[in-house]
Amino acid sequence: MGYLDATTTGIYRYSRDGARVFRFGLLWRRYVVPDAATTLLERRLRGYHALSFALLMAAAFISDAADLRWPWPLLVVSLLALTIGPVWVVRGLQRAHLTAADLVPVDRRVRATARARALGAPTLVVSTFLALCLGSFGAYTGVTDHLLDGWVLAVLMFAGAAYQLWALTLLRAPDGTETDASLGQDSFLM
To answer: How far apart are CA 100 and CA 114, in angstroms?
Structure first.
């Protein structure tokens, strides 16, 4: 399973009457997802993540290459990704007027473990290493050049690395029920 496949792991909640519910977007509105629409929704969500990443990277390169004082292309693409993208992902779905009390409770640790399994230990190790490298570069830039951008990068990357390290610990459950071998994956950290 690839990284984009992992973005669709654990995205559904269920109402007390058994309806599949999806929550997405800036306002975190809830939508009912019929069985026939799950494949389409997951394909749209993976496409949204891939396109958003590609556009953000392109806007970052354009902002850097143009040596702009403020990264306007990056800000515009970010706003478009946060506003128009979610509308495209959920189009055609029926809005669910449910509160959190109407949904079956879900343990966040179970959902995080499912995402960690979907990503797999090799992906988590590599992305943690890269986040630590980028965070170190940001801290170095912040110290040597006195740039706020470097410190922002360092904080974001170190926070991401901490989350990924936590996800790696979820793969090594002490009771032995959540191991890579039981999932049929290659044992990387076991």
So the answer is: 21
- Rg of the chain in Å (alpha carbons): 19
- Return the amino acid letter for 13: R
Q: Tens of pLDDT along the chain (190 residues)?
A: 466 777 788 788 888 988 999 988 666 788 999 999 999 999 999 988 888 888 888 887 787 777 776 677 777 888 888 888 888 888 889 888 888 888 888 888 888 888 888 888 998 999 999 999 999 998 998 899 887 778 888 998 999 999 999 999 998 866 444 444 333 333 223 2
Q: What does 2-64 look like in DSSP terms, one character per residue?
A: -HHHHTTTT-EEEBTTS-EEEEETTTTEEEE--GGGHHHHHHHHHHHHHHHHHHHHHHHHHHH
What is the C-alpha to C-alpha distance for residues 190 and 120, in angstroms, rounded to an integer? Answer: 12
- The domain spans of the chain are 1-105, 107-190
H/E element, 122: helix 121-145
